[in-house]
Specification:
Mean pLDDT: 83
Number of domains: 3
Oligomer: single chain
Strand content: 15-25%
Distance between the termini: 32 Å
Helix content: 40-55%
Low-confidence stretches: 1-33
Radius of gyration: 32 Å
Strand order of the largest sheet: 10-22-21-20-11-18-19
Number of strands: 22
Shape: elongated
Bound molecules: adenosine-5'-diphosphate, magnesium ion
Length: about 675
Amino acid sequence: MKNHEHHHNGHHEHEGGHDHKGHASDHHQGSHDHHDHHAHMIEDFKKRFYINTALSIPVLAFSEMIQNFFGVEFSFLGMGYVAAGLATFIFFYGGWPFLKGLKDELSEGGPGMMTLIAIAITVAWAYSTAVVFGLEGKVFYWELVTLIDIMLLGHWLEMRSVMGASKALEKLAELMPSEAHKVEGDDIHEVKISELKKGDIILIKPGEKVPADGKIVEGDSDLNESALTGESKPVQKSQGDEVIGGAINGDGSLKVEVKSSGEDSYLNKVIRLVEEAQQTKSKTQNLANRAAGWLAYIALGVGVVTFIAWAFFSAQGTDFALERMVTVMIITCPHALGLAVPLVVAISTALSAKNGLLIRNRTAFENSRKISAIVFDKTGTLTEGNFGVNRVEVLDGRSEDELLATAAAIEQSSEHPIARGIVKEAKNRELKLPSASDFSATKGKGVSARVDGATYQIVSPGYLKEEGIDLPEGTNSDKAETVVFVLEEGKLIGFIALADQIRKESKGAIKTLKEKGIKVLMATGDNEQTAKAVADELELDGYYSQVLPHQKSELIEELQSKGEYVAMTGDGVNDAPALAKADIGIAVGSGTDVAAETADIILTESSPEDISRLILFGRATYKKMVQNLVWATGYNVVAIPLAAGVLYSQGIMINPAVGAALMSLSTIICAANAQLLRLKIR
Ligand code: ADP
Ligand code: MG
């Protein structure tokens, strides 16, 4: 599985590290706190913003510069001190989140956005207060209070939009498959995970996520618990062992007695998907915070150099030098940088969520613009994965129904679309299924189990070839049928022919991708005729049939070595290695849990059409981020030297007021630019 970047957004003061290692239900608890905490933070920013803005009005009114601007003039005894008092309150009350953020950033690994803001407001406040109490110079109170107001507003809006996006994500994650297979006698029903009760027996098929905590009562398998324990090596478990909700089942099929209600486990799954989606940060996002860190160094460095230059190498006095230094430090803090990228992220996540894209890895999402080749799995991805049985052929004496019943008894334990088709047909014919034991699956080849004391296999044509068994008459038709063969103790006794339908969205999706110059390929475990029929119908650039799971991932590797930037789309257990190998793994939401767990992006509506949307929207999102970074930091290139007084001799110099105006402008441009993203997706 890929390493998703799980970084905490330090300056949001999310409570630190939710470990994904804790026991499932502890985790659930933690997540709720997390949520409430977030909501509480939003309220807090809002309150600070309103109170500060109200108190800022008199500070602005008392400022000489604002009075000049509006052509009014008034003053009263002690006005300067009243302004100082108000500004000091605003500095401590409104500036508190930033000062606290400074402390967190410095203790957590280096300066970022909060440091930059904290430097600017601390310098502005300390200097102005010194001036009020006698230092020669200018008072920067109005700049101080507007800076704090805008930063509070920005953070409040940002957190609110992130919260909005997470609601959208939550809705989306709830749409993910949420059924468990409940065993009642010989019957297996699909029930909602949330309806599972203690003591229920459930069946867990290969590649499925364990829906609830419990104890194995039958079967054995390797379980991957890496998402829960961090241990990446699968653990072999058998009867009597405990399984944890959230672990991923390997190739065996298990019957498990449920220990705790499924509701917790299910909520957990949803919350974890959402948290993961929120916590991953793309390279571009981290870039913004790093840029802020560098600007913090620049603010301090250039500030000091400016002071030294004016104080010691010019005819100006130290007062002038100090004022220049302060101006540089205030101006270097760009309002927009704190908002530029987060706003784009918030809007983009919310919009993708609304459009059926659950993004688990943001870097992959932003990189989707680079895709040059895309490999599709066939069954369940380009096709519905909804097999109907066309015919059942028996090669020894027994009846059709008998063969079908035996096959269905075995296939009940498989997650494969073919298996579902066979079980459905047996149910339609109201057959009584014998009981099967010792089930095991060989990815990409088939399944086996024991029924009535004999070992049966249901396998692909490829497997027959490997075993040197000739294909029987009637399977080499040109019909695009998927045929599976039934073996008893290694001897061919019959076959079942099934057919699937191409998803109605597939054709349009592939056309759009090809128009974009992307090579569209298909890799399937199915037979040559069926593969060819689908490839012709969809006008693919190429296809590979009878591909085993590891060959799918080798194929991806081969394309990569030819310089292609490869996306893989799949739904099954057999696709997981390729999904992990591809530059961008895209899982179909209706598929198995392993596929979803391995992929970078999940198409919750299972429509291949969403892939072209994904590419377009990923591209638009990336562009907006870069544009905003440029808008947010670019003005510094001009503003810092001017503020330092480089062109003083030409009579050009920026004061903080002009700087603040410039910054507000760049903030507004960034915010508006981020909103324009809404036009990029339908
Ligand atoms: P795809 O790549 O089209 O999703 P798979 O790799 O999952 O296909 O399967 C490849 C072939 O293996 C199938 O066409 C079928 O012949 C056989 N197979 C896999 N699973 C099963 C099963 N549960 N029952 C019968 N045959 C199976
Ligand atoms: Mg498939």
